[in-house]
Design a protein that fits this description.
Largest sheet: 2 strands, antiparallel
Number of helices: 11
Helix content: 55-70%
Number of strands: 2
Radius of gyration: 22 Å
CATH architecture of the largest domain: Up-down Bundle
Number of domains: 2
CATH class of the largest domain: Mainly Alpha
Strand content: under 5%
CATH superfamily of the largest domain: GntR ligand-binding domain-like
CATH topology of the largest domain: Four Helix Bundle (Hemerythrin (Met), subunit A)
Shape: elongated
Order of helices and strands: HHHEEHHHHHHHH
Strand order of the largest sheet: 1-2
Length: 219
């Protein structure tokens, strides 16, 4: 009969693990650490929700690169379910983050990044010219995330990624009128061209104007 231990912490085991990211099976962990399969399953479920591991039928348990987004998303969605205004407060955090990290982020962008940003703007404008128009939400999300992609700070990136998931959750990715969409993407194009010209001060000013445009839409 297995002698149960209460000291085994699966998440700490993940964090301290060395070597391969392929982890032992639950049966192996149970035998090695003296903890029941049922307890391990509960701890594994928490680790999956936090984005620490993935579990697949044939490959088993695999440790994933660290990302902050899943933990933020779970907490944020809970807050939003309790109070719709939670998204507005988190949106304000996101704006402050983008403003604060703007210069550090854009200075790290490569010519390939700038070309991709221009491609996203071109694609979005084409989507707005067809009948019926298609809302370029994926392009909107991608454009903002690409600008900050080279920050070596998983916590900032996780907060920004969680924002866009919440953005979809509250329905802001839906159609909001052609005139508004055209304004948004004109703003994006100006921001991208400022980045391309390395006029980062103007780009920062345009980013602030972009957020002001969103405020008018939400008013």
């Amino acid at each position: 009969m297995l002698k149960e231990t209460t000291s085994f912490d699966f998440i700490k085991y993940l964090a301290n693990g060395n070597g391969s990211d392929r982890l032992p099976s639950l049966q192996e962990l149970s035998a090695e650490h003296g903890v029941s399969i049922s307890v391990l399953r509960e701890q594994l479920q928490v680790a999956r929700a936090l984005g620490f591991v993935e579990v697949r039928p044939r490959t088993g348990i695999k440790r994933l690169p660290y990302t902050f987004a899943p933990a933020v998303r779970e907490s944020l969605f809970y807050a939003m379910d309790r109070d719709r205004a939670a998204f507005d407060r988190f949106s304000d955090v996101r704006r402050h983050l983008e403003r604060a990290y703007w210069y550090e982020a854009v200075e790290r962008l490569t010519p390939e990044d700038v070309a991709y940003l221009r491609e996203l703007v071109d694609r979005a404008e084409e989507m707005l010219q067809v009948e019926p128009i298609r809302v370029p939400h994926a392009e909107h999300r991608e454009l903002h995330l690409v600008i900050y992609r080279h920050l070596e700070n998983p916590f900032v990136l996780g907060l920004l990624e969680a924002y866009w998931e919440a953005y979809e959750q509250v329905g802001l990715s839906r159609y909001t009128g052609l005139a508004y969409q055209v304004q948004v993407w004109n703003s994006h194009r100006q921001i991208v061209e400022a980045i391309a010209n390395k006029d980062f001060e103007r780009g920062h000013q345009l980013l602030n104007g972009h957020f002001d445009l969103i405020d008018k839409r939400d008013a």
